[in-house]
Amino acid sequence: MNQKAMNGSSSSSGRWVSFRKELKVLDCTIRDGGLMNSSQFSDKVVRAVYDACADAGIDYMEIGYKNSKKIYSPDKFGAWRFCDEDDINRIIGDNKREIKLSAMADAEKCDYKTDIVEKSKSPLDMIRVATYIHQIPLAVDMIKDALDKGYEATVNVMAVSTVREADLDEGLELLGASGASAIYLVDSFGSLYSEQIRYLMAKYMRIAREFGIEIGIHAHNNLQLAFSNTIEAIVAGANMVDGTLAGLGRGAGNCQLEMLIGFLHNPNYRMRPLLECIEQHIEPMRKELGWGFDYPYMITGFLNRHPKSAMEFNESDKRGQIISFYDDIMK
Q1: The predicted structure's pLDDT at residue 11
Q2: Is the dihedral of CA 120, 121, 123, 129 positive or negative?
Q3: CA-CA distance, 80 to 317, in Å (whole number)?
């Protein structure tokens, strides 16, 4: 995990039983999990995740989205699709914990000039811009806006498995020069294998060295590779890593935060608070939300497709008819 062969990672010890102090962990349980329930988590659950992550020593908690209310109706979507400051303050109370808070701002889905207020007026510490390759000019402006308002700013390049290499190279150069402190490699469809992670990380790490920034990894679990791909990215030099409690996230879910913490060997991270929150608050939602391994998600992962079709299938009266889904999608 700490070898200098990590393509430029700074202070590496070269020993697997040690840990890399530069590496930061971000929990996105409420943000990514909100894609399974229209961000309608109770205050009790959000506070429980916040306290668990703080008690566990996690570096960042992504509490939700900064999405536009013109696009996402508050009548249908919960508070964590918008992350208004009053809602966040209601959760964290008067004494903000040491953990930093993040919100995700999607390109073309966020009224960022008005909905993202000055940092001095917000409990948020970081804005993570999410962009597809064709939206990068807009993403660069969103990053500048966040930095000008006093936030940390990072960027997630989504659906990278579908991007032409020349376009990715050009896009990464633009984002490297944007002022963002980190660029995330995102396996949106859960379709990448370890060899592809290594290849892409070498590309991202060249940008990291050129512009003096960090690289992150956000992995989905359609092919049951989110954890192993996250490890591959760490070995290759990723210093910003995502996970969710019990893997809660869109469709097949994400890299499990508790497994990640167990792997990292960092004594500053503690497992028990995470497991307690999972037992009391996350696992009781599994039957209703239905994230995790599922054959339709597996099939979309193999085909390198967005899992939307699998999610719609699982919400229909055809759920469980695996062959029906396979035959339909292969057409």
Answers
A1: 41
A2: negative
A3: 29
Which residues are CB-neighbours of 158 under 8 A, at least 6 positions away? 130, 131, 132, 186, 188
Q: What is the mean pLDDT of the chain?
A: 93
Residues listed for the chain: 331
The alpha carbon dihedral of 47, 48, 54, 57 has a sign of: negative
Q: What is the dihedral of CA 140, 144, 146, 148, to 10 degrees?
A: 180
- pTM value is 0.91
Q: How far apart, in whole angstroms, are the C-alpha atoms of residue 167 and residue 164?
A: 5
Structural domain boundaries in the chain: 24-289, 295-330
Confidence grade of residue 18 (pLDDT, cut at 50, 70, 90):
low
Task: Fold for 24-289, please state it.
Answer: TIM Barrel (3.20.20)
**Measured between alpha carbons, how far is 309 from 32 in angstroms, rounded to an integer?**
18
CA 264 to chain centre: 18
Residue 12 banded pLDDT, cuts 50, 70, 90: very low
